[in-house]
Amino acid sequence: MICTSPEPIAQAKPAVPFITAPGNAGDAVIALATQPWIQAQDFPEGTTVFKGGGLGHHANLHEALAQLPRETRLVIAPTSLDESSAALLATFPHAHVHCRGEVSLAIARRHGISCELTPDLAFTLDYTPWKRKGAGTLHCFRGDIESATNFRPADNDDISLRAHESWTPENCVEAAHDFIRTIAGYGTIHTDRLHVGIVAALLGKETHLHAGVDHKIAEVYEHSLAHLPNVRLVGTGAINRGPAPLSVIIHQHHRQDRKASVMDLFRKVGNCRVLEAISPTWESASSNVAVRGCSLSHLRALRIFGSSPVLVLEDDAEVLPAAYEQWLQTDTLPADCGAVLLGGDVEHHSPAPGGWHEVQPPFWGTQAVAYNTPLLSQTAFLTNAYELLASNQMGPNGNGFGLCYESILLMALHSVGLKLYCRHDHAFTTRSDPSARSGEIEPPRFHSIRTQPTI
């Protein structure tokens, strides 16, 4: 059949390459909206689109970008930027970034990146098929480094973690629909997950969106949600609980046997974030596992959260509530206190004023250490700790272990004129779980120091 219509036949747009990276269920919602958004744009030939979302905090996103040729005509779908992600994007001369808010836009401009304001892609979806009244309250608070609240109610359900994949427009549908359907079943939502909040808001739910550790949530709220009467932005300190300073739990995500321990720490300690434990490849031999990884994990927590006192917990730590409340009264710390040991086997110690004991070597266990980071940051503590790690041999040509973190911590503190202190009664012990180092069940660390100090 010959077409005699005077109108030209529409030509299908060529496919635009789309680069994704692992993400949670909220990222599946972004992926669901990505292909229609791409098709609605008039991108020049040769354009490559990179997934939307938050480019800060997530090393896997930076790694995926860093592998691209710098001459790529790159479009970043609506995202939030921090300084490090902007510095990386600035190395692409043909990059254009769609920013989800004014703060990210300002960062992009400071780095000389072509940019514009564009709402998160989740705002482009039609939620009509899922709209219903719903009932009950969903508490959905995250437990990673983006969390800025220690509020972890007993019914907390981080539904974003029910699905995790490198989402594409082809594989995201089921996960995105399930995510939206779950939110639709509730009447009220309290969350610091951005896409839980966006979906809840657009479904008409009473939405209490809690700000995170950076500008991401606040800027999306100001740009795209502030006009909605059913949405409230909640400040970071509004519902914090407990006596702890900022707390970091070091945890290997594949250790399913320690998930319950981590959640118990969230409930009892409060103000927690989770950092993935560092497991260097050179420690893959069973005799080496978790030696330097423990040191590097603690020091990484101090690098990231070093502006205020920080309590670093390993994921086998167990709270001893009777002794916990007295520990973190920082106004009573000795003037030369660089860190406080909250648990471990301490045989050698000397009494100090105010009920403190100076920890003397050797001691065992760093499952709970409160770092006086405002004081440490004025010294070369971190530099010295890394130097000690780098200068001690590891692996099959050495003794298999090198310096454990107990030695690193004491030596680095003493090198800057500071000390490690503890109280008589520890606030933490350890659970009887298999050791990452030996694979064997190890006994809990002592609940208190030895009653007779050895000086």
Global shape: globular
Question: Helix/strand/pairing class, anyone?
Answer: alpha/beta
Regions with little confidence, pLDDT below 50 for 5+ residues: 1-12
How many helical stretches? 13
Tell me about the largest β-sheet: 8 strands, mixed
CATH topology grouping of the largest domain: Spore Coat Polysaccharide Biosynthesis Protein SpsA, Chain A
What's the rounded overall pLDDT mean?
A: 84
Counted up, domains total 3
Number of strands: 24
Radius of gyration from CA coordinates: 25 Å
CATH class term of the largest domain: Alpha Beta
Molecular structure report:
It contains 13 helices and 24 strands. The chain is an alpha/beta fold and 455 residues long. The chain has three domains: 18-123, no CATH class; 128-234, no CATH class; 246-430, Alpha-Beta Complex (Spore Coat Polysaccharide Biosynthesis Protein SpsA, Chain A), CATH 3.90.550. The strands form six sheets. An eight-stranded mixed β-sheet has the order 14-13-15-22-17-23-20-19, with helices on both faces. Strands 1, 3, 4, 5, 6 and 7 form a six-stranded parallel β-sheet that branches. Helix 1 packs across helix 5 and helix 9 (291-304) packs antiparallel against helix 12. The longest helix is centred in the first third of the chain and has 16 residues, at 25-40. The protein starts with 17 loop residues before the first strand and ends in a 25-residue tail after the last strand. The relative contact order is 0.09. Residues 1-12 have low confidence and may be disordered.
